[in-house]
Write a structure and sequence with these properties.
By secondary structure, the protein is α+β, with helices and mostly antiparallel strands. The protein is built from 15 helices and 22 strands. Helix 12 packs across helix 13. The radius of gyration is 23 Å and the shape is globular.
Length: 522
């Protein structure tokens, strides 16, 4: 849409689209510079997919790590990041992310007053510069009474938001703590305004092609909101768009994503397409195994304590204790190879028949059995008949896995040999991660390929500016978070890279809008 100044219903210096952690942080950074800022969120809650996250933020060499006794540096983080990501993304953008991370943490602590702390969670790859206990920081939890009336504006946790569990507002942790603290920070700033139930449908450009605002639909109808300095789009990805998932990722459904059905609908990427933005990584997601529930949703699942996973052929295909994105990629490869989209976790009664993995919410065996998603049988043949798996292949997989368990070494996939795999089990050796499967009853629970969001979108430069198909910045347009093509490319280096990179590039984008672009070098 083309517009002149007098066609705007209202104007601000900065308009932020979205309300995940990257968007909220970007808005707070803008308002702290004295820029009039309007943040719009299309749903009735702040937080987007960020509210579902554990809250990890991956920013090497920051002051909180130093304070909490973690020996780390930006250079060590750079060595690791380069080894994992390689040249898949622009080196200047990588350096801008890594070099700016410590300043982001200082801003959080000193300007916004948001306390953070280190919490162990290993980096995901065995590569130079790795931290075996991780380098992620987390926000301190916040009590609902401290959040006050705003607590009802923060997206609930997954069990309440997607599976009908009661909402607990007594204590907000992880991603919800980030969201709550950032919303409160914005509320305290005179030049910041936040609006729920207000979605952007179109970017506004002037006759020179500069993005000067957005068309928004909200409680007061259609409004054209001007942005004198720029528009920051941090409105998530397209994981909940069935059309876009089929178009770019060959996924059979969008229902298995961990994000809320009303978020991640592809609004950002559609707006980018309309203005000729360069797009990349559209075939990529933050993948993960997920447990399928009777309502058709799927819940992020990790930390498999027992049993083994098979694909639709009845055969084991990967190390179940891989970092979740890597395991998801193994699942995706099996789907592409024609093994189908059915995956099953096979286990026994060693934990009294309980599901031997971390899944929130925890699956209810009776509910899943009634839906045909959990089968229990007295033999491999019976279990194969119930699941539709090939009995001979399943029997072979069971016997081979048990042989490795007896030997204390997984000769096929090295389960338990990496620190990440041992971390969730509290194990010190690979042998402790291998336990034979047997006994009077066997169980099979349906797993699917899930995700924590897509990671493809607008290509940005080191200032967070969106590039056009000609490789030049589109004036006035910026992107961060899952609306942008991730700086980590086709890899997921460690816990908190999505939030950390989103916050950092939003921080740099705002500095550029303010006329004070940050250097790439520290």
């Amino acid at each position: 849409m083309a517009a002149q100044d007098n066609t705007f219903d209202e104007q601000f210096d900065v308009v932020v689209v979205g309300s995940g952690v990257a968007a909220l942080f970007g808005a707070a950074a803008a308002a702290s510079r004295g820029l009039s800022t309007c943040l719009i969120e299309k749903t009735d809650r702040f937080g987007g997919t960020s509210a579902y996250s554990g809250g990890a933020v991956w920013l090497p060499g920051n002051s909180v790590l130093l304070r909490d006794g973690v020996e780390d540096s930006v250079e060590k983080g750079r060595t690791y990041f380069r080894a994992v990501v390689g040249e898949r993304t622009d080196r200047d953008v990588q350096d801008a992310f890594l070099n700016t991370g410590p300043a982001v943490v200082d801003f959080l602590q000193e300007r916004l007053g948001i306390s953070t702390r280190f919490q162990a969670f290993p980096d995901y790859f065995d590569a130079p510069g790795r931290q075996e206990l991780g380098r992620s920081i987390y926000p301190k939890p916040i009590k609902g009474e401290e959040v006050g009336a705003r607590v009802s504006d923060v997206r609930p946790p997954v069990p309440a938001d997607q599976f009908g569990a009661p909402e607990d507002t007594g204590r907000l942790e992880g991603g919800r703590a980030w969201v709550a603290r950032l919303v409160l920070a914005l509320d305290s700033m005179e030049c910041a305004e936040t609006r729920l139930n207000t979605g952007a449908s179109e970017l506004v450009r002037d006759s020179d092609g500069r993005v000067t605002g957005v068309v928004a639909e909200g409680p007061d109808g259609r409004r054209v909101i001007g942005a004198r300095r720029g528009v920051l789009v941090a409105a998530g990805g397209f994981e909940r768009s069935g059309d876009l998932r089929r178009r770019w990722q060959q996924m059979p459904t969008a229902d298995w994503s961990s994000s809320h059905p009303d978020t991640g609908s592809g609004d950002a990427v559609r707006m980018f397409e309309q203005v000729g933005a360069k797009l990349d990584l559209l075939d990529q997601s933050w993948w993960c195994p997920a447990t399928l529930f009777p309502n058709g949703h799927a819940a992020f699942t990790l930390g498999f304590r027992a049993g083994f996973m098979v694909d639709g052929t009845g055969r084991r295909f990967a190390n179940e204790l891989l970092p979740y994105d890597q395991m998801g990629r193994q699942m995706h490869a099996r789907m592409v190879a024609g093994a189908g989209d059915d995956f099953w976790l096979i286990f026994d009664d060693a934990e009294a028949g309980a599901f031997p993995a971390i899944c929130i919410p925890a699956p209810d065996p009776d509910e899943l059995r009634e839906a045909g998603l959990w089968h229990t049988a007295g033999s491999v043949e019976e279990l194969a008949a119930a699941t539709g798996l090939d009995p001979a292949a399943l029997q072979e997989s069971l016997e081979r896995f048990n042989g490795f368990a007896d030997q204390g070494r997984d000769a096929d996939f090295a389960r338990g040999e990496d620190p990440y795999g041992r971390f969730f089990l509290g194990a010190s050796t690979a042998e402790q991660c291998l336990r034979p499967v047997g006994g009077e009853r066997l169980h099979a629970v349906r797993l699917v390929l899930g995700d924590l969001g897509t990671k493809g979108g607008a290509v940005i430069d080191a200032n967070g500016a969106v590039l056009g198909t000609d490789g030049e910045p589109i004036p006035g347009l910026y992107a961060a978070g899952n609306s942008s093509a991730s700086v980590s490319g086709e890899a997921y280096p460690g816990p908190g890279v999505p939030l950390g990179s989103g916050m950092t590039m939003a921080f740099r984008a705002v500095a550029d809008m303010a006329g004070h672009p940050m250097p790439i070098a520290p």
